Amino acid sequence: MNKHIITDKWLVENATLRSKGTAWTKAQLEVVGVDWPPRNGWKNLIIGKKISIEDALRFKNYANKYSSNKNTIKKSNKRQKKMDILAEILHTVKGLEIILKKFTEDFEVET
Question: Strand pairing partners for 50?
Fold first, then answer.
């Protein structure tokens, strides 16, 4: 199962657009398991943590959800929809992989 490892660089790169690497949304922090409002040292607690690829995509998208530029918001909403669809596809593919693995284990074919 693919996982994403949280790094300080990744957190900074995926901060909100208008914060220049210093602010994150409540939705982003919820994705990585940080309570709102975040306490001092929250970044150190999650650096090195493994999260699903779907959650990494959600975290990245939620950064773009809030911007002072209306064009960016429109693009962000379209991008968010695409990323949500991609996350659903990834989730479905993982489920299918599990089913296929179980099926092949149950019905081993001699070659």
Answer: 5
- State the angle between helix axes of 70-106 and 53-64 in degrees (0 to 180), rounded to the nearest 10: 170
Does the pLDDT value for residue 104 go beyond 80?
Answer: no
Residue 62, domain extent: 3-106
Q: Is residue 24 part of a domain?
A: yes
Q: pLDDT, tens digit, for every residue of 82-101? A: 777 777 777 777 777 877 77
* Residue 8 CB neighbours (<10 A): 12
Question: Which amino acid would we find at residue 5?
Answer: I
Q: What is the identity of the amino acid at 65?
A: K
Q: What's this model's pTM, rounded to 2 decimal places?
A: 0.59
Contact 18, 73 (CB under 8 A): no
Say how many domains are in the chain: 1
Residue 111 falls inside a structural domain = no
